[in-house]
Amino acid sequence: MTPAAKASPVSHAHGADGPALTLRENGPALLVPAAWGVAAGAVLGVVSAHALFVAHVVMSALLVAFVVASWRDMATGVLRAWKLVILAGTPVTLAGVAGFLARDGTVPALAAALPADAALAVAFYGWMLLPAPAFVYTGLRDPEISRSIIHYAAAACSVVGAGVAALAASATGTVAGIALVGVGQTAGILAATALY
Question: Which one of 66, 162, 176, 181 has the minimum C-beta count within 10 Å?
């Protein structure tokens, strides 16, 4: 039996139904491109640092709410892998919140103790790279070959895009890396949404 043949459908027996379930199922497909769009806008100076800080705070709250609401539905298989991404991603996002607070001196003790740029880099590169293993795992478990290819491409885009952003010598290069990550991860999330 191939790994893909072992994939099982999601059971919503313990979850909410109606709009709450629809939002939990489809929300990531909307939030992923929005998050990378805001990040690209911040690099280009179109989105302010304060707006990006607010986005980190909101995303931290949404991540916690999502994983709490979906905890039982995400207990096994591919959904468990994504639950682990969310669990790891929450402190990564909070590192971004701390980085902004340290950078602008809002919390003086934090500014003295935390290198703001390092904390912001954890949030930036963390979300580029964290989903990559889950996309690979999802590709292995997806019985539909065309969707599996999308999952693998999403993983590759995440890693290559992070490399492009890290090596960029200009804002345009950084945005190119963000775009690669954003397009890949959005395609992967849409494919995963189709699976589940």
Answer: 176
